[in-house]
Give the backbone structure.
Amino acid sequence: MPPAAACRFSVLSIPPGPGRLSMPILPACPAAPWVGECGPADDPVAAGSRVGGPGTRPAAKATREVPVFPTSVSTPPSRAEAGAHGHAGDGPPLVWALVDRLLGSANQTRGVVAALGAPSVEVALDYAREWPWDRLRKRVRLTAGSQARVLAGDPGPRLVVSCGRRAGAAARGIRMALLARDGVAPRLVHIQDPRTGHADFDVIAVPGHDRAVDRLRQRPNVMVVLGAPHALTPARLAAEAALWREDMAALPHPRIAVLVGGDSGRRRLDATVAAALARQAGGLAARAGGSLLVTTSRRTRPDAVAALRGGLDGVPHVVHAWAPGGAANPYLGFLGLADAVVVSGDSMSMLTEATTTGRAVYVFSPPGWARGPHARYHAALVDAGAARRLDDATPWTAWAATAVNPATEIAAAARALLDADGAVV
């Protein structure tokens, strides 16, 4: 890699004309123009030269993951046409919420932005195909449409909130693009470990069960939280429950919602595991004299759905099997109607959201099934009084789970950044 002084972020000027505009090409480094390398001395944020930003931040490592924007795009659409939505408040949005097709990550971003309560807008991200060599070189590429949405935002935001590896890389590239365009770089708040470029973020909120939490907590810009932020509230669950109450009226109380995820990494939620879930949840409902409200997700395998259906004979229940473009999803309605909730332990987001009910929450995780971060999170929820473990002999008792939602805590850190910059929230 060349010395830091040799690397520069440049703007490619395209002659004016229909469908053409000037945009940043990230980065322009003579030795490795497409790898995403640049020395910390040339990073305007790492060097402490952020316009309007107080103080300095630690220098970043030399190699960082940044989006590579295409070199030509069509004329940027208006903010409304670009799919930016959810603008809260009057005037231009102070906050951009970066959301992609990973629903769990998008919901975490939305939760923090909702808790912040500042004027905001969602910016949809679409990524170009990620080839194996892109990952090796820590390269994330946005599609032309995504870049158009970013450059359509005028003025730029004071704060960008993101979640997940690729959205974090996009946030860093967006900051560089807006700095080149406007002379002002927005603050960055990120949820989860961005994997690289840590020093570029003002705040990184990392769950305590993260594999690298011991190393990450040494960084001055990292805060460790319990669980995954979300936007659910008891009021929203009550409203959703009202939409499904009539359809579920015939099912006896107590009603136990069963939230089913799916395969996660090497962890398989196959027919065998699903049969165990049906047996344990069905046994709990039988001991309670109640019923089950079962809903699956995009990740649930067809053989697991079949095993669930076949394992619930003799227990009053309803099963909603997720399907693309299918009927309305009762997930929130079932949570609102539930007297207790059983959640498959593969989904940390569903586990956290289930605690919003304030009712009993049970983690389904057969011995040896959950390891690493999942096992640590299950233990943390139990220790916090937010969940209990489910097994074949779990007795039915009515108890109140401690609600878990770090969105407020993360939003407070984001608000402090805006206050320091003189932005009114």
